[in-house]
Design brief:
The protein has helices spanning 10-17, 34-42, 55-64, 82-88, 105-109, 135-141, 144-155, 160-173, 179-189, 192-197, 204-215, 221-231, 245-258, 291-296; strands at residues 24-27, 47-52, 72-76, 94-100, 232-242, 279-281, 304-310. The chain folds into two domains: 10-102 and 218-310, Rossmann fold (3-Layer(aba) Sandwich); 112-215, DNA polymerase, domain 1 (Orthogonal Bundle). The relative contact order is 0.14. The radius of gyration is 21 Å and the shape is globular. 42% of the residues lie in helices and 14% in strands. The chain has 311 residues and is α/β, with parallel strands linked by helices. The chain has a seven-stranded mixed sheet with strand order 3-2-1-4-5-7-6, sandwiched between helices. The chain is built from 14 helices and seven strands.
Length: 311
């Protein structure tokens, strides 16, 4: 299995975890195993649980981690199920968690997975290939109003209403089955003048929106972060890397919420809520890729890294 994967901000992630050689760590999005292997190399008698819902990713990690023996535990799951995964492994507390959100380079580059607007393939976009729900279902069964909503909310596309209307018109003639067909509908929906001013592909935002909907990418962030914070030992770190503003906004909000102390009204003379901060935020502003990495790896362009430590 050729699973090429360039781990974004590798050094920053590993340093951010502040790894204890005998600690227990979780890579919630194993992918090609780049960040996971960085953790494994830092462990002596510790353990790493690497989670992914993609069989190809797990197979690549299995082969890559053979030399680490029982230090590595691979689990097929979505990271929103972190609570269940830890319970089934009889692990109560952990020392660090990393989440590299979004789609992997391998998934984007594997044409038949249907993630890319640059290649022709069946509409798919499933991170878990066994899932019964795909991009085809979104494009061909959602109402015009729902299509407009997800393209606008998840893609932040200002022409969402036109794209949604034209998708519905097109599929009335025949189902939209391929990425190329969808790209053509999108291109026809965006005014020529607006398209010329764009530096990016006109279908980028719509494809992002549909992919997020198919995989419930935003819905899974909150339960995973709550579980991670609750399960961390004191001094344990949570490292989260996002690739678009919607993800980063959620992570930033959750970190701020978990770092907050008293939530009583300001005019209360004393605290009665008893709320205590659970984490301290290590970097107030997100870490971004160095100029050198930006030059070497285009995927790092939009990456933002946030780190917090359990109190």
């Amino acid at each position: 299995m050729d699973f090429s994967h360039y781990p974004v901000m590798f050094s920053e992630c590993i340093e951010g975890l502040n790894i204890k050689p005998n600690g227990i760590y979780v890579d919630c999005t194993a992918g090609g195993g780049g960040h996971s292997e960085g953790i494994l190399k830092s462990l002596e008698n510790g353990k790493l649980i690497s989670i992914d819902q993609d069989d190809n990713a797990l197979l690549a990690c299995k082969n890559r981690f053979l030399k680490y023996g029982d230090k590595s535990i691979l689990v097929k799951s979505n990271f929103s199920e972190l609570e269940r995964v830890l319970n089934e492994l009889n692990i109560d507390r952990i020392d660090g968690v990393i989440m590299d959100l979004g789609v992997s380079s391998h998934q984007l580059d594997t044409v038949e997975r249907g993630f890319s607007y640059n290649s022709d393939a069946n509409l798919d976009m499933r991170m878990n290939p066994q899932s019964p729900f795909s991009a085809y279902d979104v494009v061909n069964s959602y109402s015009e109003a729902d299509l407009k909503r997800i393209i606008s909310d998840y893609g932040e596309e200002r022409f969402a209403h036109i794209i949604a209307r034209n998708i519905v018109k097109e599929r009335e003639i025949a189902p939209i089955k391929t990425t190329s067909q969808l790209v053509e509908v999108i291109k026809k929906s965006i005014p020529v003048g607006a398209a010329k001013k764009e530096a990016q592909h006109p279908a980028k935002r719509t494809f992002q929106a549909i992919r997020i909907e198919v995989n419930h990418e935003l819905d899974v962030i909150t339960p995973a972060i709550y579980t991670a914070v609750n399960r961390l030992n004191s001094g344990g770190r949570i490292v989260v890397m996002t690739f678009h503003s919607l993800e980063d906004r959620i992570v930033k909000g959750l970190f701020n919420e978990q770092a907050q102390g008293c939530i009583c009204p300001k005019d209360f003379p004393i605290c009665v809520c008893g709320n205590k901060p659970k984490i301290k935020i290590i970097n107030k502003k997100p870490i971004t890729a160095t100029p050198k990495e930006l030059e070497e790896n285009s995927r790092s362009k939009c990456a933002k890294l946030r780190i917090a430590e359990k109190i």
